[in-house]
User: What shape does this take?
Amino acid sequence: MLVRHATRPVLFLALTACSTLLTAQDSAPTFYGDALPVFQDNCAACHQPEGPKVGGITAPMSLLDYEQAKIWAPLIKNALVTGYMPPWGAHERHRGEFKGERYIDDKDKALLIAWVDGGALEGNPDAAADAAGIVSNSVGTQMPESGWWIGEPDLVVGFERPVRVADEVEDWQPTIAMPVPEGAHTKPRWISMAELAPGGAWVHHIVSSHMGVGVPGRGPFTYPEGWGVLMPEDPFITVNMHYHKDPGAGTGVVDNTQAGFVFYEDGDVIDHVVETNLLPHSGWTIPPGDPNYEVNNTHEITEDIFLLSMGPHMHYRGKAMRYELEYPDGERETLLWVPDYDFNWQFLYEYEEPKFIPAGSTLHMSWWFDNSERNRFNPDPQAAVEYGPATTDEMANARIYYAPTTKRGIVVGRDLPADVLESARAAEQERRERADLLDLSEDDFSWLGEEAQ
Assistant: This one.
C-alpha cells in the first residue's frame, strides 16, 4: 500500500534548529546575506532573468532579484514545505545515483522557510558580492548563444510548414514529418546529442523517431561517450505531437517545433548501440473515485545489458511509480522509486554510470493512480479510466534506454557493421510503412474533424 507522509522528521529537526539559532541571534535571515546563496545553488538554473525554456516551460520569476523573490515568498515556502520544488520526483534514497539530480538539503530548505517567516527581509546588497562566485549544481545553465542547449547543432529539422492548432482543438495527437534539408544528411551518422525545441506550453509531449521523448521539464538527450544511435542516410524523421489546450474562441496557436542533432566525429569510437523499450502496460481499468489503484507488470531481461536510464510515464491521475529488479538468484533491488509523480515534470532518470543487469533478471514495474476527488488534477473522478492516448485517459509506461554489454568498437567514419546498418535502415522503413502523417499541404484544415478533437 502506498502511503505519503506530509512531513519528515529530519526537516522538522532542521526547522527547529534554525528557529533556535534565530532566537539566539535575535535576527531573521536576509535575502542578500542568507537566502540568495541558497537560491543560486538550488534554483537559479531555471529561476533567473529570461530563464531557460526546458521542455517548453519557463520559470515564472527570477529568484536572483529581491523584489521578485519577496513577492513570491509565500508560494516559495509552500513549494518547499510540500516538496513541489525543486522538482525531481525520485526518492531521497537515490541521491547520487542519477545525473542532474535536484535535491535541496534540509538545512537550506529550513533557511529559506525561516527567511519567509521572518518577513522576507532584504538585508545589505553588498553581501551579494560574497555569493557571486557560487555556481549552481542543479539542472540547467545559461542558454548558449546558439539557442540550443546542445550547442550549435550539426543538423536542424522542423515542420515543412507551421502547424495550426485551431480554436476548436482540445486534445490532438498528429504524427508529423520533419524533412531533412536537401544535402544536409547524405551518409549515415552517429547521434551524440539530440534536442527537441517545443513551440510552446501547449505541447504536452513529443514522441520522436530519433530524439527520444520531449515532455515538460525535460532537457536534451545526451548519450554518454561511446554510446549512440545510428541515423542512416535518407532518414524518415517524424514526431508524434501531443497538443493539449483549452478549446474556444481565440485559443488557437501556431506551432513550429524543431529538433537539433549533434553527431559524433570521424575517429570517435561507438562501443554501445543504444536501444529503447517503452514497456507499456494496458488491459486495466481504474475504478471511479479510487485513490490508490495499483497496476503491475514484468519484463524479462534475456541478455546482459547496461541500463542507461528510465523514464516513467503516466497522465494526470499518475501518483507514483517503481522499477524493481529481481536478479537471477532471487535478490531484489529498487532501481527507481518515484513516490510523488508529477505529470508536469516527467524526468528521464539517467545513471551516473550505466548499471549492469545480468541475463535472467526480471524487471518488476508498479504504477499507482489517484482517481479520487482529492487529486486536484483529476479531469473526472467519476470516470472509469483505461489506457489511452488522450491526456484525460491514462498510461502505464516504463521506458528504458539500454545497450548490450559487449563492446562493438565501431570507429566513426569507417565501414559500418552490416547488422547495425541493416537494423537502422529497417527501422526507417518500418516507420514509413506505419506512419499516418498529417498532410501539411491542406489549406482547408479538413484535419479538424471529430477524430482530431
User: Anything to note?
Assistant: Confidence is low (pLDDT under 50) at residues 1-25, 132-140, 443-453. The first helix runs from residue 9 to 25. Residues 9-131 form one domain.
